[in-house]
Amino acid sequence: MTVKSALKASVLVGLLGLALQAQAATILMNFDGVTTYASVDEFYNGGTDSAGAFGVNYGVSYHDFLTVDGSYGQTSLPNLAYNGVEIAVANVAAGFTSLSFTSGAFSTSYMDVYSGLNGTGSLLGSVQLGSNPYAFAATSVTFSGVAQSFVLRGGAGQAGIDDVQITTVPEPETYGMMLAGLALVGVAARRKQRG
To answer: Is 135 in a helix, a strand, or coil?
Structure first.
């Protein structure tokens, strides 16, 4: 392999790596575009909140998370999301590998991370939320593996979250494209050696 072909191969591999990193992105959901006093619902899943406002498609579906505005110490205004029932669930069908957010609670509440949708499968991690509802604190759930749902549990309406960040899992076709690209680089290098 010549220096020129090795350089081309390394550039191609680098570009493929950048494409893979672009697919595994950290996304932020701050609930400020959701209609105040509405359910988040499919707002971050390419659909609407319960009032009909269209959101973006991050592949995240919220169940029983409601929004409220006010001065609760949340990090971004106007809205925060809270658990409308004792157990509110958010699903990320593609999976995620990290979860951080800001939170405050009126009573003992927890954020749990599960390997399956709808709070099923293995419990991968859990954290108790701070007990001051008027001073939101940065919080994260430490876990290993790929999760598909997070669950906010506690008394109905007792826990609030804001600025939720997750790192999504790259889609399977991204890996296929990367492997195909590496195979083409190998074929090109082999041809150069023969020629």
So the answer is: coil
